[in-house]
Amino acid sequence: MTESFEFKDRYNFDDLKKIITILRAPDGCPWDREQTHFSIKKNFIEETYEVIEAINKEDAELLKEELGDVLLQIALHSEMESEKGNFDIDDVVNDIVKKLVIRHPHVFGEVRAENEEEALASWNNAKAKTKNLKSTSESMLTVPRELPALMRAQKIQHKAAKAGFDWDTVDGAVDKLYEEINELKTAMSRGEQAAIEDEFGDVLFTCVNISRFLKLDAEECLTSSTDKFLSRFEIVEKLAKEKGIDMENAPLDVLDELWNIAKKYSK
Predict the structure, then answer these.
(1) Is the N or the C terminus of the chain less surrounded, counting Cβ atoms within 10 Å?
(2) What end-to-end distance do the CA atoms of the chain give, in Å?
(3) Does the model's pTM come out above 0.90?
């Protein structure tokens, strides 16, 4: 089958479809041939995050490479379904184009949208109609459980707020956080593991609610805080080595002093 593949200086989308079919063929690549949707599903997630990394680095060449890796995942999953006679990658393209037309009645229809907010409202209204969503809870259930937990919480809270189920101000959310922390402390004092997990989840959920009021992205905030911790910990580790301090056995007040020094360095 490889005889049908033409080597070129520059390839296009049709060449991608052809080479994926070759790789999955009986005489193709043994590894590619054995893969299933489930065996490579985590690869899809990893490649997507690598695209985000390239965007954050503002590296155009890296972004081009990582987008190609995501496209490879799409091509592979589509080829698997094509082999079953269900759909191929052209069907995927056809469906997304049709969806874009339907979801943009303010571009391809009679709906008017003068700004970004009106355009988003138009999209959401069109989505609700096509998915026959008649309640907010039905709309919430369309948010995938597989999303990162902070992101999922923020999306679901946003939908609840649009339905009017929300605090009047951020103060209500902050007061709720103190309430949830106290409930967590109570569960901890009782040593009730199931209750501890439940209350800890409520604390996180309430923190996300506060971030929404402040128009912050909870995922990005936590990522930044983790980065900050990492940079300070590197300084602590370096200081400990210079001072001959064994971090594993050092008293907490000694480590805390190093941490405060690291905070000054990293500001």
Answers:
(1) C
(2) 60
(3) no
